[in-house]
Amino acid sequence: MNRRTMLNIGIVLLIIIGLIWFNNSYLNVKPDMIREWILSFGVFAPVIFILIYSIRPLILFPASILSLAAGLAFGAFWGTIYTIVGATAGAILAFFLARVLGSKFVKGRWKGKGKAIETQLEKNGFLYVLLLRFIPLFNFDMISYISGLSKVRFTHFLVATVIGMIPATFAYNFLGSSLLASSWWVLGLALLVFVAFAILPVMASSSLREKLGFVKNGEKNNA
């Protein structure tokens, strides 16, 4: 593990600690408060949650917050299920919104990372969507929108999205569900799983970017 990777891992851990400190010092939002609010909708709570998650791409609300909330309210298993359903619906919405409304407007205008992703998606859509979902080098919604603008098949996009989001979604929901656990070892295990998925993109990003065609060999060597 090189120095740059260790530095990035340290940054991830500092961000997590900082968010916990900020909440405890200023917001004072307790896990059980979030859980009670979601469950206040009764039998409709899962439906309300899925609907909120479905329209999330339109307002670019952080998916991580909703995923943690799902774990808090529904537990690791059902929270993961509801999150996958909502995230899939949101990804479909973003995909078709981009394909119907944006294809003519942005045609030939993508540059930089966006252009690189679009090119690779058109060459091998399923594989690239799957890898980018599993190891999120780029924003979740960004991949959905660019997939809609590219020529990737919808079925490839859909299947790759569902499969690719499962590991990270479970990690977030497991962490969320553990926030109400009375056992420290459960919380510790959840944090370990979460941190593992948080640092995975950092550790794999350099080699994976090159394999996906986002970075040329010469650029990597000069970095």
Tell me what the structure shows:
This protein has about 220 residues and is mainly α. It has one domain (about 5-10, about 30-220). It is built from ten helices and no strands. The chain has helices at about 5-25, 30-40, 45-60, 65-105, 110-125, 125-135, 140-150, 155-180, 185-210, 215-220. Helix 3 crosses helix 4 (about 65-105), helix 4 (about 65-105) packs parallel to helix 7 and helix 5 (about 110-125) packs across helix 6. The protein is globular, with a radius of gyration of 19 Å. The mean pLDDT is about 75.
Number of strands: 0
Described by the principal axes of the CA atoms, the overall outline is: globular
Low-confidence segments, given as residue ranges, are none
Order of SSEs, N→C? HHHHHHHHHH
Helix content: over 70%
Tally of alpha and pi helices: 10
Mean pLDDT: 76
Overall domain count: 1
- Write down the Rg: 19 Å
Relative strand content: under 5%
Question: For the report, how would you describe the main beta sheet?
Answer: none
Alpha-beta content class:
mainly alpha
Distance between the termini: 17 Å
Task: Quickly describe the structure.
This protein is mainly alpha-helical. Helices cover 83% and strands 0% of the residues. Helix 2 (31-39) crosses helix 4 (63-106) and helix 3 packs across helix 4.
